[in-house]
Queue: 3 jobs
Job 1
Amino acid sequence: MYKVIVLQLMAALIGTVLGMVAFGSRGALSAALGGVACVLPTWLFAMRLHAASKRPGASYALAFFLGELIKIALSIGLLAAIRLIYPDVHWGAVVIGLVVTLQANVFAFLVKT
């Protein structure tokens, strides 16, 4: 699970570079914020699953689905917070950062550790 987070961080950096190339420094910051809106909830989800796996008798499936629900809600909340915190956000760059970061999950299964 932690390799997904590392891959997402690397993808967020790629998205930030793409945002910089396409939209300048404002785009780079916006793309980085879009990547953070994906990486932070995934990290918290991984921590929650790790804690649930250590508890004896805990329902791992329930922890997974509840964690996934929290992850989605947190991602949406972070995207809304981006608008409040950084009013000059470039939404095209945010989408680039978010999509590139989300695609790291596809490649996580291809990476052997």
Note: The CA atoms of residues 20 and 28 lie 4 Å apart.
Job 2
Amino acid sequence: MPVKLYNTETKTKSEFVPIDPEHVTMYVCGPTVYNYCHIGNFRPPVVFDVLARVLRAKYPKVTYARNITDIDDKINAAAEQQGVDISVISEKFTKAYHDDLAVLGVLPTDVEPKVTDHVAEIHQEIQSLIDRGHAYEAQGHVLFSVSSYPEYGQLSKRDPDELLAGARVDVAAYKKSPGDFVLWKPSEDDQPGWDSPWGRGRPGWHIECTAMAAKHLGDTIDIHGGGNDLVFPHHENERAQSTCSHGAKFVNYWLHNGLINMNQEKMSKSIGNVLLLKDLANEIPGEVMRFILLSAHYRAPLDWNDDVVQQAKSSLDRLYGALRKLAGISLPEDIGIQIPQAFDDAMSDDLNTPMAFAELFALAKKANTATSDEQRVKCKAGLLQAGQWLGLLQQDPEEWFAGGSTDDQATVIESLIVQRSDAKADKNWARADEIRAELTGMNVVLEDGPDGTTWRIEK
């Protein structure tokens, strides 16, 4: 089925038609690396990781870029406080970000540009805007003139006359209009800075992505993604800069994911209800977190609470339980594509993951009731292939149910299960109950069935 995507700019869902059918381009805004990231920061990388997987299954080539912002006043402040170079801060938290992505099973992007590596390109973009009459110099700053671009506000559907500055500075007297935003700003002697035609300084936030997207993907790209909170001002300003600098449409499909709430309250550092992923990972398996992030449609808000965590764990237990029963089924190398058409249709329909999960559970049910090896082979291949699109179900089922326990722990558990089985065979019910209680104390859940006893760790 052709891929359909909802475009924030047009407010419509339509068939995705790439500029080049042989090569799809996608750019997603990445983190500003000054601190550890919370779970809300990871909905975009998980969502667009899934989109990249789907596109790779349908197109010959996909180039997916997600940037690292390593020039920022928050990074500067952290570096000054610790008495280190900004690179020490940015490299530390870039690594932390990569570690968190690995926990969530997010694949590396094709390109991961850093702002510090693209200062020359940023200068070129700014000069192009000045030359074309869309930017001006004022007191060491270079600013984009919003009035020079009549289409400003069309992405966010805001009236330009009502918009305030979108840059990370207060409205200042040197602006011709309050809505004009900074492309380049001066640095004090004790601040990080780069030489430029407009004096020593550093780039504004928005121009960075314009320069990096153009260098690695071209003047016009197929897809640009990010969270709803970036529609204005960041993406609105990107759209204006890029269009005016290159004289060409910047993005054909703008995609934005909904934000995460914590117990129905907006997750915010100012409120203090953020959940750092590195802390969550001590309590919740990464695959469970990924499942939660995909459980609602990507454009809808997502509420994070204890109930959804347990529901996600139980849902994955069901799916891995089906795969566990198929452990003895080998897949031929020429198995081909076994993804159910209904699953493909759901994922191709603007990443309708709730419907895709429903089809996955239907396939698991079919696997549990299959009466022939031919059916079991198709079901196993379908579960694994569909899971690959979602970035799920790629663990060995026994590893999943072991819950990260060590080999020594697993040996102890298996030994106790054998002892319990022997006690039951001897009708020593008291001893069998004692062993079950001991295993329960170890957070081991037993499931007795006609084929014996299976177990899993319940976190």
Note: The longest helix spans residues 306-325.
Job 3
Amino acid sequence: MATDAGDPLPRFPAGFLWGVSTSAHQIEGAAELRGPSVWDVFTAEPGRVKDGSTAAVACDHYHRYPEDVALLAGLGVNAYRFSVSWPRVASPGGLDFYDRLVDELCAAGVRPVPTLFHWDLPAHLDWLDRDTAARFADHVAAVAGRLGDRVTKWITLNEPAEHTLLGHALGAHAPGRRLLFDALPVAHHQLLAHGLAVRALRAAGARDIGIANSHGPTWPASADPDDVAAAGFYDTLLNRLFAEPVLLGGYPDGLGELMPGDVAADLRVIAEPLDWYGVNYYAPTRVGAPLGTRGEFGGVTIPAELPFSVREIEDRPLTDFGWPVVPEGLTELLCGFRDRYGDRLPPVVITENGCSYEGLDDQERIAYLDAHLRALHAALEAGVDVRGYFVWSLLDNFEWAEGYARRFGLVHVDFDTLERTPKASYRWFRDVLRAQG
């Protein structure tokens, strides 16, 4: 990958938000001190996780959070995006942990930015059930009531697209369903939950609310009309389906007709105004017409019956996860959103961007982050209103169906001893933040 990593990064605006991200299920452990989630049920089933592991201990952040906050302070970030475990909050004393964590962050001068749902749905709930959206609003109200005196920036949901596609359509993630297009109600109920959460946060006095949606450019495999049409469908399904109800108050291309309930009334809730829009970016997707055979993409099996096929992006370096490294795709994505949504797009925060590489001297990660920050700055120069950037992730962690085989952290975690060791990328990012002031 071509990079200017030896040269200073261009200057980002004053007040820019610099942070790192984690999620509760992936790092907290202490599973015995909370109720079960769909991920606990999923990982208990043989064959669901590639190395047979669970997140029962993970990084033991629940007990080691002071050490992890010290790592944040040493890194020099001004914000930390973590998630609040719904099953933990629903358990006796669960909110006490987040009370302690937020106090520790504030004492260290790090702004707490909680995500209120990051895939760990309580095991007795189901996103196919509309009532789950109302239960989520209750959860949000409880968290805001407890933490809202210190938390000033909130995220409702993380990546409802992946939770719908991987968890409910393809069965690769919890809860492991293979519903294909019958999973669309899951998307709608998550979006409704987002809108209800915005209302609950506003009622609690919150004034800085966003969502963390995953997005990436969709590239047709060729100029053939069938490939172009398949890519357009994929873009609708993975990008527009989750952006446009929130930003425009409507579903694209007649998809609203496939959603359950009073969709028009629900869309008025879903489209509650946001203060900013979160984007998780990893890579573009190259898409063509269906090939009539099963495919593999990012470790996930793509069924033959889908109306598209995912193809390799050639002549690009790959991360250890096999994901292509395409930093300019971030510029393309953000400029495309600006052009597509105009003044309906609020200020943008990159809520996740990162890569999986082995080793403590992780020069590949340094090159990756450097190139993506330059691509982000190019979008700023092109007029996109970007207000912040969060690296995924602070710690090596439980990487969902991959178990502990993928390492996204700036800090290495020995999963036998739980010892934390900052990597070369941690020191590099620390120096970047110092240079940015």
Note: The chain has one domain: 17-436.
